[in-house]
User: Fold these one by one.
Assistant:
Number 1:
Amino acid sequence: MRRQMAHRAGAHTTRDPRGPRRFIGPIVLGIAGLVIVVALFGKPAPATADPSGNVAGVTSARSSPSPSSAAAGARVPPPCAFGDEPTPARDPGDWASTILDTTLMLPESYVPTGLVPVTDAGIEGRGKVRELVIDDLRALTTSAAADGVTIGVDSAYRSYHQQVLSYESYVKGYGEDAARRTVARPGHSEHQLGTTIDFTGDLAWLAAHAPGFGFVMSYPADRSPEFSCYRDEAWHFRYVGRERAALVTQSRLSLREWLWANTR
Ligand code: DAL
Ligand code: ZN
């Protein structure tokens, strides 16, 4: 029976006198064809991309530079990482150019010159700012009043040590992960520059008008936290002067990105 079935399976074949050697030609041709196709069209298997578009093993232009390679000429900031590197422009005279983020920081000894009460500008609230901010802060306050809008100051200059307290208090309340995205670690806060204000009042009015008086929102919703390194803060404005504020606004970048692109 088995013999019969074997016979049937080969019923329509005729025996080739070359034996197994008859397969050599087609195999060689097949391999040659494959080599040609791979040479012409072959690509490595596609790598997988993460949600931000970075491909495994290949970093995008936006995310690739490390702080050191950026210092060597790259114009985009590195991804927001946690570190403690001295920020390059850290003289009080560099107040409009100093980059502060989750990596770059001011020394503990940095205390801005010329601190005066914010109330010198005729605005309600507490704290101090550098005197160089006062004229434009006064003009902003006057403009708000003319538009029937109330604004005030909740927090302005914070020393390194005040920032230690703010950060530790937030960690106690909400944990380290939340704190790192919400409160700058000591040395990393723009409040230490003496040119930064957390406003109260009509934040929508401020978003529209503050840049005209030299104040930019450091952590705008559409760039935060990915590029600004912190969660969005509609109340936190840093004074950079009217001309620079206009350029930052026009760029549609966060201040951090703009400074990386334009001041290094
Ligand atoms: N909330 C901002 C990031 C600061 O602490 O300076
Ligand atoms: Zn703030």
Note: The longest strand covers residues 233-239.
Number 2:
Amino acid sequence: MNGPTKPIILGIEGTAWNLSAAIVDTFDVIAEVTSTYVPPTGGIHPREASQHHADHIKSVISAVLANAENNGIAPGDINAIAFSQGPGLGPCLRTAATAARALSLSLDIPLIGVNHCVAHIEVGRWKTPSQDPVVLYVSGANSQVLAYRAGRYRVFGETLDIGIGNALDKFARGAGLQHPGGPKIEELANNASSYVPLPYVVKGMDFSFSGLSTAASAALETSSIEDVCFSFQETAFAMLVEVTERAVAHTGKNEILLAGGVGANMRLREMLEIMCNERGISFYVPERRFMGDNGSMIAYLGLLMFEQQTLLPLDESHVRPNYRPDDVVVTWRGH
Ligand code: AMP
Ligand code: MG
């Protein structure tokens, strides 16, 4: 077996509820260790999540370094430290950034500031045959339709209020389901018997989920939870598929890549697959471990940026809670 190939990058993800560190080379993940903050009740509290990250960062970094060492990689072999600079929850971002700065200084290697959304895209292009996709990125806080054009990932459509995952989680919490609500809603939806009309909100190429979540909560007074879960999914996913399809038609691209934790949903996948089959285009979904937030995607985009020497000086390494994917100048794609 061949050993790991240079460069080797350590990446730290900590935008929200997952604290995750990974070490990668060009070909694969060498080591990854994740610690997930699970709120005792309710949703994610930014300060509590960041306290979780602060409590676990040392053990997560030690464990990922130890795992890498078992695979023949010493700390001295690492070429750079990448971290999620944004978007995300400020207190969580600051904890991960502080660790990244400390590692960069102590190992005397460069720091790389990674945009979390773009990392979701690049890990998908790495771990599927996808090359130039329209991306549907659906997670807790984010919902966007993106595609590459002229040096940037352009946002073709996005949520006007909350992310689809947060909308599902908020509804689920109100219905007495435990966080995260998405998987429970999917399960209940499978036992539905009829569709309850809910607000379908697409404005231009953007969508909105807050009103849908509220209307779904209200519908629980007159309909079964199974029917409401089913109807929520059908309505929200149809909105997402409509905008994604229009982005495909507009750009002329012939691939769709699904990214983000909500991408685990089988009904969403099925609806996208039907649309792709009808249009004769390819549909790509990465392995589950690369869909939700993970350190590997940060390390991998860090690697692409390191190869272009797109480095981050320490005095510019402040976190960027509202960092947009279209703010990033893509230096690593040749066309
Ligand atoms: P992320 O922010 O990418 O880590 O994704 C987390 C979000 O994915 C949470 O809002 C979850 O409720 C949601 N999620 C996870 N699994 C599913 C699923 N099977 N269906 C719908 N949403 C899901
Ligand atoms: Mg994410």
Note: The radius of gyration is 20 Å.
Number 3:
Amino acid sequence: MNILLTGGTGYIGSHAAIALKEAGHNIVIQDNFSNSSPLVLNRLALILGEEVPFIEGDIRNTNLVKAILQEFSVDAVMHFAGLKSVGESVLEPLKYYENNVLGSLSLLRAMKESNVKKIVFSSSATVYGIPRYLPINEAHPLKPVNPYGRTKLQVEQILEDEAECDALLKVVNLRYFNPVGAHKSGLIGEEPRGMPNNLMPFIARVAGGKLKELHIYGDDYDTFDGTGVRDYIHVMDLAEGHVAALNYLPHSSGFETFNLGTGDGCSVLQMIEVYRKASGREIPFRIVGRRQGDISSCYAAPNKANQILLWSAKLSLFEMCMSSWSFQEQLVN
Ligand code: NAD
Ligand code: WQD
């Protein structure tokens, strides 16, 4: 199939690009580089042995998206483009609604006018809000607790409404848990601008000597070692989940949601220990107060994706840390 990846030079989109090419699909990427670099395109070309067709631009430019859909005879869209910082979304909610919600509306309008009827959406476990039970399945109530999460839920609802009225539209809505790690080449990975907010990129910078120590946000949670527990999933497993979603799209009844996670919880202290072993570096840390808005534990019930998409996460925590470290090392050198 011919696939458009919006936000395809970003962290998850660039890894999905590799999995899609390896599965035999043709891809084209559109990105406005608001949170990525053109260098990713060189890296993808090195990994894939060929240039990836790329158009620079914003998905809010509906005419541009239409032109891409038509020029590349796009069969399906993978919609990664979006802003994703929880903290920034609290400070600048309008920016998040404008980019994530208006961006998705523009994309859907372009798809409608170009008769493109298949889309995979990058949603997030953040739409569940504070877990009422664990593991979280797709039927868990939806109550996001920050503007970022609400933009994701709003786009889900728009997609669901659109699929309801257009019997030909097929939507697979993927709720990612905590994607981490990098492609095995070490050439692409997660490199946040400025100070990292998320655990794994922070640990990577401490291991690489770029930051002095990790602050652990609380060791008094109701977990086995007191630190927060999450469902970390290797970004290449996540990428394979997109290939599985694409294979499933024609069979989708309209709008269908799947959790993409491992089903296993890992604590902050466990992650530090595995990263230490994988990198051979010490990870100095200090326990500080809880981070506002944090939850104790969150992990997926991935059974629906396992059974219906015929996909499951295969790569271990050690492989997540090893690949993150390979990427970090080539940044250091
Ligand atoms: P990322 O920031 O690395 O990638 C997003 C890409 O989209 C960037 O390259 C950015 O430049 C581009 N982009 C943003 N707005 C755009 C616009 N209006 N027009 C064109 N391009 C635009 O983020 P990521 O981690 O790769 O996340 C991809 C998607 O997955 C996002 O929608 C995010 O909300 C979702 N998600 C991410 C995580 C995570 O922890 N990384 C978890 C759950 C869901
Ligand atoms: C994981 C654990 C922290 C940093 C966020 C978003 C969510 C989703 C994924 C997109 C927690 C602890 C972290 C640090 C720490 N993104 N931690 N020191 O909070 O599960 O989810 O990213 O959809 O929307 O909210 O991930 O990596 O920030 O935190 O102790 O410097 O690590 O308290 O227990 P989180 P995270």
Note: The pocket of WQD (ligand 2) is lined by residues 84, 86, 124, 126, 178, 197-199, 202, 214-217, 228, 230, 268, 291, 294 (CB under 6 Å).
